[in-house]
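Now for a sample.
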Amino acid sequence: MRLVIYTGKGGTGKTVSSCATAINLADKNYKTILISSDPAHTLSDALSINIGNELSDVLSNLMAIEIDPIFEMQKNYDSFLSYIASTFYGKGVSRTMAYEMGMLPGMTQLLSLLRIEHVLTRSDCDVAVVDMPASGEALRFLHFPKLAGSMGRKLVGIGGLLGGLARLFQPLSGYSGQLGSFLNQEADIMKRLENLGSIMSNQSITSLRLVTNTDVFSLKNAKRALMSASLFGINVDVVLINKVDKTRYETKKISENIPLEFYPVPCRIAELRKTELQGIQMLRDHALEIFNDSDPSNVFFRERYTL
C-alpha cells in the first residue's frame, strides 16, 4: 500500500492536485481512495461529484470521502462529547452551544486521524491520496500519531490525558457513566494512532508532497514545511510548483530557479490555467502535466533533506 499526502498554503492548488493524482492512479488500475481531511472540503467542487462522510464511488477504481470530525464524534465517541457538553449545559449554556464547546482543542484533528487509520486498515486499496489542511497545521497533524504513540507507552496515553481533563468536570456533572465509556476506548485509540504513526514514518509507504506557487509567501511556507517534515521524520518526495504563468518573463525565470531552493528534492511544474480546474477530464489533464509518463505511486525521493 502507498499513502500520498498533499499539503500546502491555502489557494496553491493542493486539492486539485490530490484529485488529479488519484484519478491518474485509478486510470493506471490502482485501487485508489481519495481522502479529504481539510475542513474546507472542496473535493466535491473539484470533482463535480457530491462527496460525503462515507466512501463514494467516483470512477471504477476510485472512491472518495470527506471526513467530518463532528459526524465522527457523534457516531463513535458520543459518550465523551455528551459528558463534556452536559457540564456546560448544566451551567446554563444552550444545548447547541454546549455541544460546540464540548469539542475540545485538538479533537477534530484526532478524530480525522482515527478516520484515516480506519479507511487505510479496513480497505483493500493500493494507494490512498490524502488532501491535508494548510502546511503548518498539517505537519503537526501528521506528527501527532507518532507523538501520541510514544506518550501512550511512556506516560499515561491520550485517553488518560483527556480523562484527567474530563475528571475536572466530573463534580459538575452527573454523567460519570459516560466518562467511563469513553475511557474504555483508550487502548483502542492508542493502538490505532500508533499504527498510523508507523505507516506515516515508513518512507516506502508514505510520501508528503508540497504544493507551492511562485509568490514569496507560498515559497517560504513550503520551505518551512519541508524543514519541519524532515525534523518530524516525514518523507517529502516531490515539490509541486503550481500555477506558473509562463507568459510572464519574471514568473518563468522564478520558476526556473525555484528547484534550486528545494534541492535535492525533485520539483515538478504545472502551468497556470485560464479557467478553474474542475471535473474529471480537466483533472486528468492536470495529472498528465505534473507526472508525464511517470507513475504517481512511485517514491521519487528517499533521502533525508538537510539545510
